[in-house]
Amino acid sequence: METRKKILITIGDPAGIGPEVALKAFLQFHDKAIVFVGDADVLSEAAALLKLNLAIRAVDSVSEAIFDKGILNIIDVGALRGLSWQKCVPTAIGGRASAQFIRCAVEIILNGGAEALVTAPISKEALMLGGVYYLGHTEMLAELSGATDYAMMLTGGRLRVILATIHTAIRNVPDMITLGRILGVIRHANTAAYMLGIIAPRIAVAGLNPHAGEAGMFGREEIEEIAPAIEAAALEGISVTGPHPPDTIFHKAYNGEVDIVVCMYHDQGLIPLKMIAFDRGVNMTIGLPFIRTSPDHGTAYDIAWQGRASATSMAEAIKMASTLRLPTWR
C-alpha cells in the first residue's frame, strides 16, 4: 500500500511557464508520490519541447497512479479539450482553464485523495478575462476550502516573511492594520514555524511607518494596533517582539537573529526576500486545511514555451510541500 504523502501539482496557466517548470522540477523527485492536475496534451507538448523521455499517463484518480521513474501521472480536467488556445499571452481560455485545474485539485484533496498541493503560476489578468474574479491563488484556495482565517507566507534563502495584508493598494493598508488582524498573523507565524519544524521560533513584527512610527511622530498604528497585538500574543505564550523599524529588522533576520518577520504589506516583505532569493522563493498558505506551496514567481509569458525558464523555485516548492506538516490543533 502506498504510504508516501500524495502531492498534487496544478500546471497553472497553460500559456505561461507553468507546464515547463513543473515538468523540469518533477524530474528531480522520482521518490515522491506526485500526480499532476491539468491537461495531458499541454504537458505532452511541453515535454516534447524539452525533449523529455516521459510516459505521460492519464488517470481518473490518485489511486490509479503508478509512481515509477519515467512515468508522469495526470488527472486531465478537460478544460482545454476541443479549444484552440494561445501561448505566451493572458487569455480568457487560459484563465478559465487554470481555475478549473485548481478547483479540481482542491476537490480531490478535500475528499482525501491527496495531502498537499503545489500550484504552478497563474495570471490574475487571465483569470479576470475568463470571468474568474479572484485576486490570486491564495484567496481562491481559501474560498474553495472554506478557510476564513489564513495568511500568505514566503520563504527564500535566510528570510521567512508572513504578510498582514496581501493584494491591496498601499493607500488601503493603514486602515487594515488592526489589533485583531496583526494578532491573527502572529498566530499564523507561530503555526508556520511548527509546520516548518522550527523549535522555539523567534517571531519579529515590523512596524508600518518609518522608524516604527518614532513614538507616534510618523503615525500611531504601532502604538494603537501593532504593539497591543504583540502584547496579546506574548500573553498566549508566543515568542514575539516588536514593532521593529522596517529598515533594520530584515538585516537581523538575514543574520539569523529572527526566524519569521511579520510584515504589514506585500512589498515590505517581498522586496527583501526577492532581493536575496529571486529564483528560490516559495509561497506557502497558512490556515488552509491542507499543505499548499507554490513558486514565488509569475507566468513569465515573455519567456514561456522557449525551454529556458528556471525550475529552481518550483523544485523548492515541491521539496517544501513534501516536508511540511499540518498542525495538530487545526
From TrEMBL:
Q: Which is a Pfam family this sequence falls into? A: PdxA
Domain of life the protein comes from: Bacteria
SUPFAM superfamilies noted in UniProt: Isocitrate/Isopropylmalate dehydrogenase-like (SSF53659)
Q: Listed GO molecular functions?
A: metal ion binding; NAD binding; oxidoreductase activity
Keywords for this entry?
Metal-binding, NAD, Oxidoreductase
InterPro entries the UniProt entry points to: PdxA_fam (IPR005255)
- Its recorded name reads 4-hydroxythreonine-4-phosphate dehydrogenase
Record the organism: uncultured Nitrospirae bacterium MY3-5B
